[in-house]
Design brief:
Chains A, B: It is found in: Cell membrane. Chains A, B: It comes from Brassica campestris. The structure is a homodimer of 149-residue chains. Chain A has 149 residues and is mainly alpha-helical. The N and C termini of chain A lie close together (9 Å). The interface between A and B is medium-sized, with 25 and 25 residues.
């Protein structure tokens, strides 16, 4: 059986994971370092926990066990994780973008010291991260589908 | 071939669509009527246009042509629309929720006349709408999968 490029365990998938890791961690660092609103910190924390558990698991699998057998159960778990994380990263990105726009439109002094630019970059990175998670999910869905044909 | 309950053209799907219609229109009305920030109105408009085009098409199909042949092409289009709209409704809901929380935490007078409660209800309805779109997408994916087996 031919392997779908980008599906779990391939080198394209590894590259996707590395970019996801880079984008999401940069986004998280720039968002969480100096933010003082509880609701966004809370969502950041939920992010970090879920992301670190599911994502590092998938990374470890794809790096250490490079020639993984493509079992439907493993692929389903990875696919489910990708879908959940893509929704989470989209909601985080939208929340950050909306809050930043609100800060910019209401209260100019709130955006001192390039704070708002930081949050905008953070939201942009979270959006990019969402797009990469979506790519991973599509590749894994395709791979899962091709397992049965 | 047995029909998947909840897939395109069934009565469960029709009920899901009716609830989606109710939730999203109530959410939109309460969000757009008295909101004066451009970024949210813009996302509202994008919502309305996309939702009205894709969703009323699907509704008309499922109501008027009740015994639709389950063609893979039709199901794929409905599935794609559901996925896109579920992402859109999630992003709108998160944006509204985040903006409302920001309004509540920064500036108390901004939330006069039960304005913030309206927005919270609106965000809640948008979240419910997202959950229903996700249901529709899952049912249609299942139906599409069962077409090939």
């Amino acid at each position: 059986m031919e392997r779908v490029p980008g599906s779990f365990g391939t080198s394209v998938s590894f590259a996707l994971r590395i970019f996801q890791l880079g984008f999401s961690s940069t986004s998280l660092i720039s968002m969480c370092l100096d933010y003082d609103f509880n609701e966004l910190s809370g969502s950041c924390n939920a992010y970090v926990i879920l992301w670190s558990i599911l994502h590092t698991l998938a990374d470890t699998y794809s790096v250490l066990l490079k020639q993984l057998p493509q079992k439907p159960r493993v692929l389903s778990i990875v696919l489910a994780g990708d879908v959940v994380l893509s929704f989470l990263s989209l909601s985080g990105a939208c929340g950050a973008a909306s809050a930043t726009e609100m800060l910019l439109s209401i209260d100019e002094p709130m955006c001192g010291d390039k704070r708002c630019i930081k949050y905008q970059v953070s939201a942009l990175l979270a959006f990019l991260c969402w797009a990469l998670f979506l790519d991973s999910a599509i590749f894994n869905l395709w791979s899962l589908y091709s397992l049965f044909h």
